[in-house]
Write a structure and sequence with these properties.
single chain, 388 residues, alpha/beta, TIM Barrel, eight-stranded parallel sheet, 46% helix, globular, binds D-gluconic acid, binds manganese (II) ion
């Protein structure tokens, strides 16, 4: 029997805002009382998490005085040392305060843009002080309801200027910190700029320090856009940009549901875990999700345990897939290569181009070959359903 107990090596993390979610939604009031950051650290330690991440305001309220901040940070660090939890990632709340109603770095108001930079520099200091090595940028309100209000190419330029400024700030301070950009197509704005992993990858290449900036893709965000999350993650990985990942779940096309990891689209979650484990992704497995609004704090713990347990079950399933003789035999058949064209793998040369142009192909035979993908998929389903 495999062991599904979370261990520090698994790098399972949660945000203060995830297990701390009180269930408030646009239609109803909170259903759970608010826990303090210290209580949340202990809750996460109880369920076996490795780390805790936060927005600046989750830890230090936006109204706190410097002396209140000092006490809060001291108590939080004490809770970390009492429990052994670490803070791998931090981020800024640039969406909650009314000042950010038209965005932060992309706001039309230069004063708001300046305040966003000011708030982020302080939040970076706080994150680094608590040990963060990854700093996430989720542009929650960086978008529009009406495009008559803002030129999208001005918005792109403002966002670029802000990130360039903040990269220089981090370098100036000598911080060991990388940025991870988190795309989302909409919600809370009608449209958010740079809505997908692909869009962000293109944008990063335009920055002054692209080596400092990568991606924080989220399952729900690509699913909201009807996209294949695994393919998005693979593109980020291939570009050397998978700095962090937000795991949760939901069907395509819905609002941002933030369900327990693996609770909705099990097959997609399996391919994702298999990919992360196969390639050796070594970053945090961060669960950016929250418990159903029906739950009390026992339910929140069940939710958090469930995220980690499902990940570990899928990891074990991936191991079985890689060792399953029938599955591997089918893959060997699918990937068969008699080496005729291996000369093409070393890149272009004029001779190779000439040789290839002069080759005669049996197009009909190529098209006639049957591919056993039905069998392969059925075996995968049976493995996931536990009958293999
Ligand atoms: C959302 C986002 C956020 C971010 C968080 C950290 O849909 O609300 O996923 O939860 O991940 O702000 O950057
Ligand atoms: Mn989200
Ligand atoms: Mn997220």
């Amino acid at each position: 029997m495999a062991d599904y107990t979370p261990k520090p090596d698994h790098k399972f993390t949660f945000g203060l805002w995830t297990v701390g979610n009180t269930g408030r939604d646009p239609f109803g009031d909170p259903v759970r009382h608010k826990l303090s950051p210290v209580e949340l650290v202990h809750l996460l330690a109880d369920v076996g998490a490795y780390g805790v991440n936060f927005h600046d305001d989750d830890l230090v309220p936006i109204t706190a005085t410097p002396s209140e901040r000092a006490v809060i940070v001291r108590d939080f660090k004490q809770a970390l040392s009492d429990t052994g939890l670490v803070v791998p990632m931090a981020t800024t709340n640039l969406f909650g305060d009314p000042a950010f109603k038209d965005g932060a770095f992309t706001s039309n108001d230069p004063k708001v843009r300046a305040y966003a930079l000011h708030k982020t520099m302080h939040a970076i200091d706080l994150g680094v002080e608590c040990g963060a090595k990854i700093y996430v940028f989720w542009g929650g309100r960086e978008g529009t309801e009406t495009d008559s209000s803002k030129n999208p190419s001005d918005a792109g330029k403002r966002f670029r200027d802000a990130l360039n400024f903040l990269c220089e700030y981090v370098r100036d301070q000598g911080y060991d910190l990388k940025f991870a950009l988190e795309p989302k197509p909409n919600e809370p704005r009608s449209d958010i700029y740079l809505p997908t992993v692909g869009a962000m990858l293109g944008f990063i290449a335009t920055l002054d320090h692209p080596e400092m900036v990568g991606l924080n893709p989220e399952v729900a965000h690509e699913h909201m856009a009807g996209l294949n999350f695994l393919h998005a993650v693979a593109a980020a990985w291939d570009a050397g940009k998978l700095f962090h990942i937000d795991l949760n779940d939901q069907m395509f096309g819905r609002y941002d549901q933030d369900f327990r990891f693996g609770s909705v689209m099990v097959k997609q979650a399996f391919y994702l875990v298999k990919f992360l484990e196969d390639v050796g992704y070594s970053g945090s497995r961060h669960f950016d999700a929250h418990a159903y609004r029906t739950e009390d704090y026992d339910g929140v713990k069940a939710f958090a345990r469930g995220c980690m347990r499902t990940y570990l079950i899928l990891k074990e399933k991936a191991r079985q897939f890689n060792e399953d003789k029938e599955i591997q035999a089918l893959l060997t058949e699918i990937l068969a290569d008699d080496g005729t064209y291996s000369y093409l793998s070393g890149g272009y040369s004029a001779d190779k181009a000439k040789q290839l142009k002069n080759t005669t192909f049996d197009r009909v035979a190529l098209g006639a070959r049957g591919l056993p993908y039905e069998q392969l998929d059925q075996l995968t389903i049976e493995l996931l359903l536990g009958v293999r």
